[in-house]
Amino acid sequence: MEAAGAAPAVIWASPDQAKSLRKARENGTNGGYLAGQVTDPVASRGLGLPIHVSANLPARTVIVADPTRIHIGLRSDVRVAVSEDYAFDKDVTAFRATYRVAGLAVDAPSALYVIKAAAS
Q1: Half-sphere exposure of 8 (CA within 13 A, CB side)
Q2: What is the pLDDT of residues 57-106, one digit of tens each?
Q3: Which residue in 17, 18, 68, 81 is a FRET match for 116, CA 20 to 30 A apart?
């Protein structure tokens, strides 16, 4: 990734892999934890990169990416709707923001790696 001019800056992981990443150690069963020390708050990083857990990823999937090389196209501007009727009896006003996404593009294929763990 770095050889192609991209810099890994984020990890997205399926819930099963996030757990494994947090428990990974430098030398297998000994050595320092890659996510930090066991005395640290709940680990949210691995190899110095933030780990974002997403149930939208298939099981056993990890994505390492340079997010500056990923582009999302919007099909419409953000629309904000207001409803004073919702929960009128509780004096509540509801707000909803929506927008449509046109697609996703990566300007350099080497800026994003999808890693699929073996089933075991």
Answers
A1: 19
A2: 999 999 989 988 888 887 888 899 999 887 888 888 999 999 888 878 88
A3: 68
